[in-house]
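Q: Sequence in, structure out?
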Amino acid sequence: MTTSYNVSDYAGLKNTTITSIEVGTFNPKDVATHSAWGPDAAKATDGVFAPEGETWNSPYFTVILPSAGESSAVVIDLGSSLTICGTSACAPYVQADRHNMELDWWDESNQVWRVWGGTCESSGSGLILRPVIASTTPGGVKCGNANADGSNFTTRYVRLWALPGADDNNFSVSEIQLRDGSNGNSSTAQIVSTGKSQLGPRPI
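A: Exactly. Output:
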């Protein structure tokens, strides 16, 4: 591969000469396996919920997903392996468009994504705050099952993606909230997702 750069307009760099560049190993994995970094999606972990019913594609609050499916997932990197609360008292919460959303966690030992649960498909419009309900079949989650307890899970990476089903293709996420499950599961458990790195869908 050959490339050239014009740095003559930059003081201090115009006399720089690059003679050769050696490329090391190349990792072709995509964002679904959290190894090829996609665009920043920090709005979804900034701790700010949009007003309920806010436009689904608000530029102030949302990360737009180009399509349904795990290839368009947003991935949270918690920085280290943490135990996340899965009981109804402090289970994950999501503000997103009205589609079913699936939440998965990364099983480091087996190098696979594990399904944890999903949000119900809402009949409302705009951005809607709702709990993630523990289920092995997130596409079948119904609204009103918010008291279904799930199990805590320990992971560094969590991803959220839209499931097909609603009568539109408007997919977006405003906020994902995860709470600490290592010191008892209570409604006052510390939020551990705010400020964490979140990666958007890989470029199309």
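Residues 115 and 136 are 6 Å apart (CA to CA).
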